[in-house]
Amino acid sequence: MEHDGPAAAPANAERLGREFFGAIDARDPHRLRATLADHATFRSLPHRDAIRPADDIVAYFGTVVSSYPTARWDVTDVIATEDRAAVQFLVREYAPHLGRELVSEQLAVLRVNDGRIVSIVGYYDSAEFKRLFWDDAMG
């Protein structure tokens, strides 16, 4: 099979999206901050108030990973252009008292500019997440 040269490098937005969730999974606030423009905004769901600027986003995710100390964030798919990405990922946490893993499938839409993320909007079933990670987990 012929091809016309080296495989294309991942779009900037794809690389940044994977790095953002990799930094959350690694619980590395400096790595997370490096993905964000100073004026970045984050909304956990489209209708929620935006968290801004970047340092507040990093602090927010610090509380998230503290609330789920053994959770993992695994990117499963990315659809991207150079400046936008839809990042599908799983949040997983083993619940020993239930004898099973809790899993929430989520999506984040990112916009990037000048090599940094400027906007993130999350999409997930918040009622299912609450049921799985709070109601069932706290059982």
Can you tell me about this structure?
- The protein has helices at residues 12-26, 29-34, 54-67, 126-138; strands spanning 36-43, 72-80, 84-95, 100-113, 116-123.
- By secondary structure, the protein is an alpha+beta fold.
- It has a domain at 12-88 and 107-123: Nuclear Transport Factor 2, Chain: A (Roll).
- The chain has a five-stranded mixed beta sheet.
- It is globular, with a radius of gyration of 16 Å.
Tally of helical segments: 4
Characterize the biggest β-sheet: 5 strands, mixed
CATH architecture of the domain at 12-88 and 107-123: Roll
Estimate the helix proportion, in percent: 25-40%
Per CATH, what is the topology of the domain at 12-88 and 107-123?
Nuclear Transport Factor 2, Chain: A
Give the amount of beta strand, in percent.
35-45%
Low-pLDDT regions? 1-5
The CATH class label of the domain at 12-88 and 107-123 is: Alpha Beta
Shape: globular
Which strands sit side by side, in order, in the main sheet?
Answer: 1-5-4-3-2
End-to-end Cα distance, whole Å, is: 55 Å
CA-based gyration radius: 16 Å
- Structural class designation: alpha+beta
Number of strands: 5
The helix/strand series, from N terminus to C terminus, equals HHEHEEEEH
**Average pLDDT over all residues:** 92
Summarize the topology:
Blueprint: H1 12-26, H2 29-34, E1 36-43, H3 54-67, E2 72-80, E3 84-95, E4 100-113, E5 116-123, H4 126-138
Parallel strand pairs: 1-5
Antiparallel strand pairs: 2-3, 3-4, 4-5
Task: Describe this protein with a few key phrases.
alpha+beta; 35% helix; 4 helices; 139 residues; globular; single chain
